[in-house]
Amino acid sequence: MSEHKALAVVVGATGAFGDLLVEVLGVRRELVRGACRRVPPKDWSIGGAPRKWPRAPVPQPGRARHEA
Question: Does the pTM exceed 0.85?
Fold first, then answer.
C-alpha cells in the first residue's frame, strides 16, 4: 500500500471513530481528540488475548447454520 493510501485509511478510520463517539455516546464533536498508531502484528491482541496464542477457526458465513 502506498504511503498516501495508508494515510487516507488512517484518516478515514480516525474520522469514523470520532463519528462513533459523537453519534453513539453523545460526545460533543469539538471535544473529540484522537491519535492512530501502527501496532506491529507481534504486539496485537484479539479479544483480550495476545495474538500469538492459537485462536479457534473463524466460522465461514452461512456454513455453521446448515451443517449438522
Answer: no
